[in-house]
Design brief:
Blueprint lengths: L1 H4 L1 E4 L15 H14 L3 E4 L6 H11 L6 E7 L2 H9 L4 E7 L2 H8 L3 H18 L4 E7 L6 H13 L5 E6 L6 H15 L2 E6 L6 H10 L4 E4 L13 H11 L12 H12 L16 E2 L2 H9 L17 E2 L8 H10 L6 H17 L4 H12 L2
Parallel strand pairs: 1-2, 1-8, 2-3, 3-4, 4-5, 5-6, 6-7, 7-8, 9-10
The structure holds 3-hydroxy-3-carboxy-adipic acid and copper (II) ion (CU).
3-hydroxy-3-carboxy-adipic acid binds next to strand 4, strand 5 and strand 6.
Length: 378
């Protein structure tokens, strides 16, 4: 099953660079690539060497950085881009060509037969120049393309027998999981090639769509750290990890999960953004339990309200107690944590005091601690 043998292609250094506030210096790229490599992503996709002179130099630097991850670059479907990319020594080329009516009309102006001819020409050229190169061919805007057009293009490309992987791209974030499942399933069945999914998050389905792709047999998923990318980005690395972990921890056991918080912080710092409060795993509130009923159950057994264990990511849960929804189990646990011995009646009375005061204004943890210490006479 692909969920046992999928690879992550992290595109923070390509798609992520297209995020509104992202401009990575060479040393930042090396830091990001190094940490992703330590985390264990299998492949890193970098900006095309044709984008700018520095992009080309940085690509060469990262190719030669001795990372375990394979280094890919993303190019338009033309021989000149391919030639320049091959020259950098990258391990793989991700070639992309728009097939939706919108992109055929306004982006490159080519018809489907012309797209097939061009793709054939470029792929043959790469195979001749670089026999070992891993070649991926994607149709851009797959989910607004006509299905008959897509199949013509994909089958023609697959029939060349020179491509290692086909890519499916939800460029505008419009696809639903069932559509992704059907498209990936058809490609796997018809071509037997590896299939990659790249999904934008404009309508909030990027993680679900990536998961549907894997269920349908996709072998590779594109992510970026925190999901950064064009507009509001693509499948976030942490979100994909959360989704797969909750299906079966063994699916993500190959990754160094404790590095996820550092990865998210690194990108937040570099891009000068906050990690969203509701971010998967690393959001500030991801492991805060508040209502008294929740706190009681979590204190007895965290799995009552946690499907993800914070320890696996080097994080800690928090029981929030200084508010009107608090319960005495949480207050008692705090007293114990402070090493205070208080009888149950006292703890219940303190709980009532906290509730009354919190009806006017929530208490900080140190204010609750002060109440507990006062009651214990310490
Ligand atoms: C782009 C478009 C792309 C390509 C994805 C892919 C998309 O920015 O060039 O090559 O699989 O979303 O379609 O990112
Ligand atoms: Cu994209």
């Amino acid at each position: 099953m692909p969920l046992d043998r999928f690879s992550i292609i992290d595109s923070t250094l390509r798609e992520g660079e297209q995020f509104s506030t992202a401009t990575f210096s060479t040393s930042q790229k090396l830091e990001i690539a190094g940490l992703l490599d330590e985390f264990g992503v299998e492949m890193l996709e970098l900006t095309s060497p044709c984008a700018s002179p520095q992009s080309e130099a940085d690509l060469r630097t990262i190719v030669n950085a001795g990372l375990k991850a394979r280094i890919l670059t993303h190019i338009r479907c033309n021989k000149e881009d391919a030639r320049r990319a091959i020259d950098t020594g990258v391990h793989g080329l991700d070639i992309v060509m728009g097939t939706s009516p919108q992109l055929m009309q306004h982006s490159h102006g080519k018809t489907i037969p012309e797209i097939i001819d061009l793709a054939t020409d470029v792929i043959r050229f790469v195979r001749e120049q670089a026999p070992e190169m891993v070649i991926r061919f994607s149709t851009e805007d797959t989910f607004r393309s006509r299905e008959a057009d897509l199949l013509r293009v994909y089958l023609a490309v697959a029939d060349l027998g020179m491509v290692n992987r086909l890519g499916v791209a939800d460029t505008v974030g419009v696809a639903l999981p069932a559509q992704v499942y059907n498209m990936v399933h058809q490609l796997v069945r018809l071509t037997g090639l590896d299939v990659e999914f790249h999904g934008h998050n404009d309508s909030g389905c990027a993680i679900a769509n990536a998961c549907a792709a894997l269920e349908a047999g996709a072998t590779h998923i594109d992510t970026t750290i925190l999901g950064i990318g064009e507009r509001n980005g693509i499948t976030p690395l942490g979100g994909l990890i959360a989704r797969l972990y909750t299906l079966d921890r063994s699916y993500v056991a190959k990754y160094n999960l404790r590095l996820l918080p550092e990865l998210d912080r690194l990108i937040a710092t570099i891009c000068q953004i906050e990690i969203p409060f509701n971010n998967y795993i690393t959001g500030a509130s991801a492991f805060i339990h508040k209502a008294g009923i929740h706190a009681k159950a979590v204190l007895a057994d965290p799995t009552t309200y946690e499907i993800i264990s914070p320890d696996d990511f080097g994080l800690e849960r928090e029981i929030s107690i200084g508010h009107r929804l608090t319960g005495w189990n949480g207050i008692r646990q705090r007293a114990r944590a402070l090493g205070l011995t208080l009888d149950d009646n006292t703890l219940r009375a303190i709980t009532q005091t906290v509730k009354q005061r919190a009806d006017r204004q929530a208490l900080s943890l140190s204010e609750v601690d002060a109440l507990l210490r006062e009651a214990a006479g310490s």
